[in-house]
Every structure is written in structure tokens, then in C-alpha cells.
Design goal:
Length: 400
């Protein structure tokens, strides 16, 4: 299989053509190699391949697959990373990126505002095996500086936190971490590869749940870890191939096709999100609207310096707590209640009782996850229809 030419393309072109490899049949759409294993011409060839695998040589689907490799090359080129490893889910990517590099006695500093499953890995999994984890307010650089020590191995944070949309200063935190030789690992799901050059800002490793904006249509689980050749090949792959967190070829094919339209989808969703957030600000029944693209956002200036647009996610707090929030959600007709995000369909959830329900009340309060907080992922519907739906929901919440 011959590599396609890869000139100095712009991001949208890389998202369509990057990493493409065609078989002898010259197919237009990328081929799905739906196979768990590969055949060798001889016993000697099998022996040689297990010693050193060439660029178009594979051993077992858990180690690598041609369709998965195309997705890895394409997303790496889009992100500006040297290499990538595609995983079975976004959480497999978070777990793999951290656990593959850490040992008992290592120290990690993390922002405390994280998705609930990310918190579980840091609070429960890493500490269970002797890794020390320090949590900080991610928006407070003084806390980062105080927590990072000469022996710190890594820092971890979401570039935009889930669900309260705090924005972390990637360049500043990276400078503090790199001063002691620590690796900067960033979950960039909310900012997306479309709107933010995370590695250009200083991150060493970038993680995505491909389930979100990359697929963007609610079909498949997937994740990806992006970093240097050494980190991916010498740290991540030895861990992942033995623990089994690889992406399936079919899901990789879905992700490849989805990358072709990701830029268009995310831009339309972000434009809709700004219109919706602007329309909601000041509405009766809302105590606050949180969107990085609004001037009222506490880190609006930083967000606009780091990102091209404000993203596709909005958080809002319904006056009247959980009861009012549930009335609001149950009155919506166009927007669906689910816990995914980054989808073509607009999706809303109540974090305190879903994605972050395992946290204690004290943790929720510290993170700003109030009983009235809801998280909205803006889809591709007409923004006017979504605004009308949301206003009707607010009327139901206030009128009860």
C-alpha cells in the first residue's frame, strides 16, 4: 500500500486526506481491514515481524491495524503531533496516557475540575498504586506553582473543564511544569482540535475522546493519545498493547470518515452556541450563563487568546435548584437529555445527578456543580429552534 502525498495542507485538507493509504484496488473511501490477525509468508517471516515491524506490517489488531493506523496518522497530522495511538474510548486514552508513564512514588499535579471518570483515575486508580496526586484550582497559577515540585512527573488538566467550563492557561502551566521536567498532559475535548493548537501552547500530550466531536454523530466509542514519537512508541504502546485498550478497525473507519466533516460541524456548532448563549444571558429563571465566548466569562480574554472560537458547550444555572432544573429539562422538545456531547444533535444533562453524581456534596460545591447547573452541547439544528426550545423550558421552570 502506497502512502498518499502529504504536501503542506491546511487543516481542513489534512482532515480529509491525511494518512490515506490505498490498496491495489485504488478505493476512494478508506478500506476497513476488519481482521484480528495477519498472515505471514513463512515461519521465518513471522519470526522477523515479531522482532521488528515495518511501516505496513502488522501482527495483531491489539498492536496495530491498517485502518486504525490511517486514523492515527490523520489525527496526528491535524493536531501537529509526531505520533498517536487510538484507543477503545476516551477514558482508555486518559488511563493509558497517565498509567503508562507513572510508577509508585511519582507525583502528579492536576486541576480538580474534571470529568467524574477522570477524577476516579486520579483519586482512586493512581493513588491505589502509590502515585501521589495533588489537586489545585486550575485557574489559579499560584496554586500550580506551589504544587509543582522538582520530583513532579506530570501535570494533567482539561483545557476547558467539564462541566463548569473553566479555561486553563495552557502556556503558563506548561512553563511551570517544564521548569522541573514534568510532562504536560491535556484533555482537549471541549476545545476540539479545530479551535485550539494545544501543543503549540506547550502541551506535550493531548488526549481526545473521539466519541465526542471527532465522531460527532453518536455512533462509536473511541479515543486517541497524541504526543512525541518516543512517548507514544516507547511508553504508551508497550502498555496499551498488553492491556488491550486499542480501537477497533470499524470504529477507526467511522472516525476517519467523521474527520472529513469535523471542521464544518464544529464551526457551525460554535456559531450556534454563541448565538444561544447571548440570547440566554439575562433571561428570567437563569442565575448565570457560562460560555467562554461571552465577555461575562471569567476567563473570556484567555479563552479568546487560546481558541479561535468559544466552543460548542454552554453551562447554565437554573434558579430554584434541582427541582427547577428537572422541570426545565423535561419541558424541552427539540434538545434531548443524554450524557454525551459534541454530537450533531443538541444534548443536555444535569451533571450533579449524572456525569458527576459520584462526587460528594462538598466536592460538587467546591467545583461549582450546583443542583441547578445544566450542561448543554449545541448541535447542528437551527439556533432559532434551539433558542425557542430553551426559552420554553425556562418558562416551564419559572412558572411552576
Amino acid at each position: 500500500m502506497a502512502d498518499a502525498k502529504t504536501p503542506n495542507w491546511k487543516p481542513r485538507t489534512r482532515a480529509v486526506h491525511g494518512g490515506t493509504k490505498r490498496s491495489q484496488y485504488g478505493e476512494v473511501s478508506e478500506a476497513i481491514f476488519l481482521t484480528q490477525g495477519f498472515v505471514y509468508d513463512s515461519a521465518e517471516a513471522a519470526e522477523a515481524r515479531f522482532v521488528e515491524t515495518g511501516p505496513d506490517e502488522y501482527i495483531y489488531a491489539r498492536y496495530g491495524n491498517p485502518t486504525v493506523a490511517m486514523f492515527e496518522e490523520r489525527i496526528a497530522g491535524l493536531e501537529g503531533a509526531e505520533a498517536a495511538f487510538a484507543t477503545a474510548s476516551g477514558m482508555a486514552a486518559v488511563n493509558g496516557a497517565l498509567v503508562s508513564m507513572l510508577r509508585a512514588g511519582d507525583h502528579v499535579v492536576s486541576a480538580r475540575a474534571l470529568f467524574g471518570s477522570c477524577l476516579y483515575i486520579l483519586e482512586e486508580v493512581l493513588t491505589r498504586y502509590g502515585v501521589e496526586v495533588s489537586f489545585v484550582d486550575g485557574t489559579d497559577l499560584d496554586q500550580w506553582q506551589a504544587a509543582i515540585r522538582p520530583e513532579t512527573k506530570a501535570v494533567f488538566f482539561e483545557s476547558i473543564s467539564n462541566p463548569t467550563l473553566e479555561v486553563i492557561d495552557i502556556a503558563a502551566v506548561s512553563r511551570l511544569a517544564h521548569a522541573v521536567g514534568a510532562l504536560v498532559i491535556v484533555d482537549n475535548v471541549f476545545a476540539t482540535p479545530v479551535f485550539q493548537d494545544t501543543m503549540g501552547l506547550g502541551a506535550d500530550v493531548v488526549i481526545y475522546s473521539a466519541t465526542k466531536h471527532i465522531d460527532g454523530q453518536g455512533r462509536c466509542l473511541g479515543g486517541v493519545i497524541l504526543g512525541s514519537h518516543d512517548y507514544i512508541n516507547k511508553t504508551v504502546i508497550p502498555y496499551m498493547k498488553h492491556t488491550g485498550g486499542a480501537m477497533s478497525p470499524f470504529n477507526a473507519w467511522v472516525m476517519l470518515k467523521a474527520l472529513e466533516t469535523m471542521d464544518l460541524r464544529c464551526r457551525a456548532q460554535a456559531e450556534g452556541a454563541l448565538r444561544i448563549a447571548t440570547a440566554l444571558e439575562g433571561q428570567a429563571g437563569l442565575t448565570r450563563v457560562i460560555y467562554p465566548g461571552l465577555a461575562s466569562h471569567p476567563q473570556h480574554g484567555l479563552a479568546m487568546a487560546q481558541m479561535e472560537k468559544g466552543g460548542t458547550m454552554i453551562a447554565m444555572e437554573i434558579a430554584g435548584g434541582q427541582a427547577a432544573a428537572f422541570r426545565f429539562l423535561n419541558a424541552l422538545e427539540t434538545i434531548i437529555i443524554s450524557n454525551n456531547l459534541g454530537d450533531a444533535k443538541s444534548i443536555i444533562t444535569h451533571p450533579a445527578t449524572t456525569t458527576h453524581q459520584r462526587l460528594s456534596d462538598a466536592q460538587k460545591q467546591r467545583l461549582g456543580i450546583s443542583p441547578g447547573l445544566v450542561r448543554l452541547s449545541v448541535g447542528l439544528e437551527d439556533p432559532d429552534d434551539l433558542i425557542a426550545d430553551l426559552l420554553a423550558g425556562l418558562a416551564a421552570a419559572v412558572g411552576a
